[in-house]
User: Which sequence fits this backbone?
C-alpha cells in the first residue's frame, strides 16, 4: 500500500529517455511546464498530452505506474477542482443553498485539474527516468552560476538527492513498522479522526528514531570517506552531451516554437 | 490453531520491472504444538512466508486456512487471527515506542481489548518469562541495551497470549551468549505454554537442538521439510543452497561414513560427548 507511492522514484527500464543527459531532461521538463501555462483553452493541452504520451511510451513506463504517481496528489487535485468549481463567478446553472455552480466554474475546474495532472505526471516522468545521482549532477550544473552569489549549490543538490534516495527507504521502514504494530493488534483503519491520529503514534515514534539513526549513520559514513562538501570535488562520470542529447534539444525547441506559434 | 497453506504464491510489485516472485507454490501443514525451524538463505522468502501466517500479507494465488477457515471467507476475522498468531518481526527492537517498558508491552493486550487487570497480569508474566527484571519496568525502552530491547519486544507479543508464536531471526545481531539466552528462553516458553513455535533463522546451528521439524526454503520454494536428522543428511544439497549444518553433526556424519558406529542425530557438543561416552 505505502509502496504504491511512486512519486520521485526511479523506474529502471534502460530506455533511450533514461540514457539522455539529465540536463536535457531538466530543460525538457521546464519546457513542458511552460507549455502547460501558455494556453487558456483546452486545445492547448493537446500538444502537451501528445508530448507526454510519446515520452511515456518511449521511456517504457507502465501507465499504471504513472497513474499511481498521481494518487498521493489526489487530495490536492480534488481540492483545487472544488475551489474552482465553487468560486468562479459567471452564468449560474445550479444552486443549492449557498452553493452556486457556474458554467465557468465547471470549465475552470476541469481546466485546472487537467493542467495539474499533466504537470505532476510530466515532472514525475523526469524522476522516473533519472537516477538521484544524475539529478543532483544536473542540478548542480544548471544552478552553478548561483555560486557567485554564494548559494551553496552543491550542498543543496546533495541534500535533495539524499532526500530523494531516502523516500523509498523511509517508506519501506514505515511499511515494516506498520506491519509490526498491526501484528500487535494495532488498527489504523477504523475510528474517528482523533483515534486515527492517535494510532499514528506507534508508527511515528519508531520512524523518527530510525530516521535519526540512519541520518547519523550516513553522516558518519560520508565523513569516513572524507566528504567535505563541494569544493575541489571531481566527478567519476562528468556530464557530457552526446548526439542524442543535441537532437533532443532540437526537438524540444521545435516543440516550444510550435506551441507558441501554431495557435 | 492448525494452519494450512495451499499452493500459496506471493508476487511483489506485479506488472512492473520490480516484479518479484517471493513465494512460489508453497503448500504446508502446521499442526498444533509443533516446534518448527524455518531455514533459508537471505532472500529465500522466509519473512514473506511468515507474514502470511497472520494475514499481514495475502497470497497472490492459493489459499490459507486457519482452523479450517479460509482467509478469503467473508466472515473471516482478522483481529482474531492476530490474537492467535503472534508475530515477532526481524529486529523487533525498532518498533518500541512507548514511554516505559511496561506500557509498551501493554500495547498489544490493550489493542485486543483485554481487561486492564488481565492485560497487566499477562504483561508482567511475559516480561518475567523473557527475563526482564522488574526494576526495568518503568524505564524508557529506548534506554535499554540491544538484547534487552529484543526481549521487551518479544514480551510485547507474548503478552497477547498467542497460540502460535512466530519469531523472525530472534537471535540476529546478538553476541553468542545473548543468542543462546534468547533461544533458550523461547524453548522454555514453548515448553511451559505448550504453544506452536516457528523459529526463522538462516543458521542451522541455532535451531538444530531445539526444533523437531525443519523447513528449508530456497528461492521461494520449499526445498526440504523433515526432521533435523533427516534434513542434515542432505549436507551437500544444503551447501548448494548456501546453508550449513552444525559442524559437530558434519563430523559425526563423516565418521559414520568411515565406518564408525555413531548416531547421526547429534547437534551439540553435549550430545556428541554423550554419544561418544556410550
Ligand atoms: N516489500 C517487498 N517488496 C518487494 N520485494 C520484496 C519485499 N519484501 C521482500 N521482497 C523480496 O522478496 C524476496 C524474499 O524476501 P524475504 O524478506 O521474504 O526473504 P528472507 O528469506 O526473509 O531473507 P532474510 O534472511 O534476508 O531476511 C527477496 O528477493 C526480497 O527482495
Ligand atoms: Mg527475513
Assistant:
Amino acid at each position: 500500500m505505502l509502496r504504491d507511492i511512486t512519486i520521485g522514484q526511479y523506474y529502471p527500464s534502460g530506455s533511450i529517455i533514461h540514457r539522455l543527459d539529465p540536463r536535457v531532461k531538466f530543460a525538457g521538463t521546464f519546457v513542458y511546464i511552460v507549455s502547460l501555462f501558455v494556453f487558456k483553452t483546452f486545445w492547448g493541452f493537446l500538444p502537451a498530452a501528445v508530448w507526454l504520451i510519446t515520452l511515456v511510451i518511449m521511456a517504457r513506463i507502465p501507465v499504471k505506474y504513472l497513474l499511481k504517481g498521481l494518487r498521493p496528489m489526489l487530495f490536492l487535485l480534488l481540492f483545487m477542482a472544488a475551489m474552482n468549481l465553487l468560486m468562479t463567478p459567471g452564468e449560474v446553472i445550479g444552486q443549492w443553498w449557498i452553493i452556486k455552480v457556474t458554467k465557468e466554474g465547471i470549465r475552470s475546474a476541469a481546466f485546472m485539474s487537467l493542467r495539474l495532472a499533466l504537470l505532476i505526471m510530466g515532472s514525475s516522468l523526469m524522476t522516473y527516468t533519472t537516477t538521484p545521482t544524475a539529478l543532483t549532477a544536473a542540478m548542480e550544473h544548471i544552478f552553478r552560476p548561483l555560486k557567485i552569489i554564494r548559494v551553496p549549490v552543491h550542498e543543496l543538490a546533495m541534500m535533495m538527492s539524499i532526500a530523494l534516495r531516502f523516500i523509498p527507504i523511509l517508506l519501506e521502514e514505515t511499511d515494516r513498522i506498520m506491519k509490526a504494530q498491526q501484528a500487535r493488534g494495532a488498527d489504523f483503519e477504523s475510528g474517528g479522526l482523533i483515534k486515527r491520529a492517535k494510532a499514528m503514534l506507534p508508527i511515528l515514534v519508531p520512524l523518527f528514531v530510525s530516521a535519526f539513526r540512519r541520518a547519523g549513520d550516513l553522516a558518519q559514513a560520508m565523513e569516513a570517506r572524507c566528504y567535505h562538501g563541494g569544493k575541489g570535488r571531481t566527478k567519476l562520470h562528468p556530464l557530457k552531451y552526446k548526439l542524442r542529447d543535441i537532437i533532443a534539444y532540437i526537438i524540444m525547441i521545435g516543440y516550444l516554437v510550435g506551441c507558441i506559434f501554431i495557435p | 490453531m492448525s494452519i494450512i497453506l495451499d499452493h500459496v504464491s506471493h508476487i511483489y510489485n506485479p506488472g512492473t520491472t520490480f516484479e518479484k516472485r517471493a513465494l512460489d507454490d508453497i503448500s504446508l501443514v502446521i499442526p498444533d504444538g509443533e516446534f518448527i525451524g524455518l531455514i533459508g538463505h537471505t532472500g529465500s522468502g522466509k519473512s514473506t512466508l511468515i507474514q502470511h501466517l497472520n494475514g499481514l500479507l495475502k497470497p497472490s494465488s492459493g489459499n490459507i486456512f486457519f482452523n479450517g477457515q479460509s482467509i478469503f471467507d467473508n466472515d473471516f476475522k482478522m483481529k482474531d487471527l492476530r490474537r492467535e498468531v503472534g508475530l515477532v518481526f526481524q529486529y523487533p527492537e525498532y518498533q518500541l515506542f512507548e514511554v516505559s517498558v511496561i506500557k509498551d508491552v501493554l500495547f498489544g493486550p490493550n489493542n485486543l481489548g483485554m481487561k486492564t487487570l488481565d492485560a497487566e497480569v499477562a504483561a508482567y508474566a511475559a516480561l518475567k518469562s523473557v527475563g526482564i527484571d522488574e526494576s526495568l519496568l518503568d524505564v524508557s525502552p529506548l534506554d535499554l541495551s540491544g538484547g534487552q530491547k529484543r526481549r521487551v519486544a518479544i514480551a510485547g507479543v507474548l503478552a497477547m497470549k498467542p497460540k502460535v508464536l512466530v519469531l523472525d531471526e530472534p537471535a540476529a545481531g546478538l553476541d553468542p551468549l545473548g543468542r543462546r539466552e534468547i533461544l533458550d528462553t523461547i524453548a522454555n516458553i514453548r515448553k511451559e505454554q505448550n504453544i506452536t513455535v516457528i523459529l526463522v533463522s538462516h543458521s542451522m546451528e541455532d535451531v538444530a537442538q531445539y526444533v523437531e521439524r525443519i523447513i528449508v526454503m530456497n528461492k521461494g520454494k520449499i526445498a526440504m521439510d523433515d526432521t533435523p536428522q533427516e534434513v542434515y543428511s542432505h549436507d551437500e544439497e544444503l551447501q548448494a543452497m548456501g546453508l550449513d549444518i552444525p559442524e559437530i553433526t558434519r563430523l559425526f556424519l563423516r565418521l559414520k561414513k568411515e565406518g564408525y558406529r555413531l548416531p547421526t542425530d547429534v547437534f551439540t557438543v553435549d550430545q556428541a560427548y554423550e554419544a561418544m561416552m556410550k
Remarks:
- Residues 131-232 of chain A form one domain.
- The interface with chain B takes residues 3, 11-13, 62, 64-65, 176-177, 179-187, 201-202, 205-206, 209-210 of chain A (CB under 8 Å).
- DSSP finds eleven helices and two strands in chain A.
